[in-house]
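Intended use. Records like the one below are meant for learning the mapping from a protein sequence to its folded structure. Do not use them to infer anything beyond what is encoded.
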Amino acid sequence: MQTPVIILSGFLGSGKTTLLLELIKTLHSRSLKPAILMNELGKADVDGQILSEAVQGLPLEKLFDGCICCSKKSEISGSLRGLLALAPDVILVELTGVANPEEVVDAMAEPELLNEVTLHKIITVIDAENVLEYSSIFSSDKELVHTLRRQLEVADLILVNKRDLVTDLHLSKVARLIQKHNEQAVVYNTMYGKFNSDAVIAELKPLNRQAATSARFNVVSHPQHPSSHQHSSSPGGQGNASFSRIQSVLIPVSGQTPVPLRKLEKWLKAKGKHVLRAKGYVLLDGSRSASLIQFSGKQIQHERTEYPGPYYIVIIGYELDEPALLADWQTGVVG
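Structure written out for the chain above:
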């Protein structure tokens, strides 16, 4: 059974840590054991200290001095596995304010985590007072503006925090901004991160697992290759159902028949906005060894590797129809 992961995103000062504390208290009140992965840009453990003081004995893993989607991305796997060894019922990931939640979802699809965790929800917290000014304030930093926009676009649930600091007219403008970038997210206007958390945790249940006796944080583990059967965090798939719009589907790839690169690229591009990323290991036409395939932003990259495990492609995208995707793979790429 996979462990659900809830990702908390939002720009600096929006109120993510306050929300995190509220969620932890609610989870404890329902006899659910949370574990926390926290990322901070600086070297100082400000938010981690706040959590440690507020909740004694909280399983907490911290990544400092870097963005979890950039310099710290390679450490996500070890951090999550260290927390998984403690047998939590749910893992809460609080991102630094300039991180894109998609990068964490991408990291969760690595072979060593693919069958261990499932994305449950992406929550984005926005600062009602300042969010309308971000595009003009950061106009010279297109990458940051893009990241802030993606935090809105990929969210399953958006909290418009600090509602008490703005007028109703201002709040209506914030609502139009959200509607422009995300028509499907559930939106709450909040103060101090307080809202009906049933929208997030109602589906969670105790997993009733025992922690590993040798469990330690910062565990560095050797990758485990995904099993050859299909994996999905989409409803109806194996393991826990995903309650997020972003899902992942594992497509087993035969090692007997090489895959034409152009055919694979055409197939991925044809999926349009439904596919955000794809990655995995396949045997390409004209090659005798595995190639690492990575697809993002409508561009495909490949490189030879010494990967010895079973071939597969992981598709990450919006509201994926797993049976249709698997059937289409057989006719569009293999056939």
